[in-house]
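Record filed below.
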Amino acid sequence: MSQDDQDEVHVSPASQSLERSMRRALGNHKRAQKNLKTDPVHDFRVALRRCRSLAEGFSAIDPDPVWRRLRKASKQIQSGLSDLRDVQVLQAWLRPLRLTGGPAGKALASHFKKQERRARREARSSLKSFPRKRWKRWSRRLPARAELIPVNERRLAQLVLEQLSRVIDLHERWTKEPSAETWHELRVTVKRLRYLVESFLPQKSEAWGAELERAQDLLGEGHDLDVMHDLLVELSHKRSLPKLAVSRSLRRVDTAARKRRKEYVALVSQPPHRNGKGSSVDNAADTSPQKLWDRWRTELACMASITRQGGEESSRSAPRRALRVRARASRYPHRPRRISSAP
């Protein structure tokens, strides 16, 4: 029996997460139909987003086209509720940002009132098109199918590692050239990473959950504030608002946005935990501190690494090996490095 066969497991946590998310979608759909308030709409969209992320994950390990259909259905309904959710989120920022009065506040209130009427019509149409019968059928069959998918932990780690690599690429792009667009892409990618970790690697979710959730919150709030900034600028041009009032409003919005970005950078730059709940790499890694995303990538690379027959090392094990080399170099700075005989 091969090592892969020995390590083979069934994706029970992910199938259970899929069942919960699909049932929550059905329940929250009814709530949202009765009341288009903030919480029902938000809960329904979260359930759809989780179903969509899980479908993307399962499609990578199971070729059945049903996962693509689930992903497509989730995306369509979610998109139909996006405008209403955006209006509700921005309205919730008015009081904390002290934008409930004055010329800017009145312009925002008038704009949101008009946008909300249109968004509600679109949301009702989207809720009406939700395929409840098909969804009920899927909620019975798909978790059972997911339970039967044989996959080893290495493959699940690879799946999460691929998403984390996208996060790191976007983080580095935003660090080099900060922009609202890249920040938004990073927010969405981190959100998907969180859902994948929670569903496919629950043991990592216990260790990373708080930091992942905090990163997602900071990215989300920063994005909301970027949208509010652009909206204020747009309204100031359309309605010829007093420059001083707009300037003061923008200053408050930008100050809040900078605070979120600063907190995000501090979060992902923090050193490893020393209480055993953070990085699971060996103690040698502590002498060469990495940023949050890089530490997690190292851990996932260790889980996903496979030593081939004949002793050939998988390319995915290279990050951990490099980490140990740096650790030894920092511990013994005067020791000459061994020269590899490889060409």
Observations:
- The chain has two domains: 3-268, 283-331.
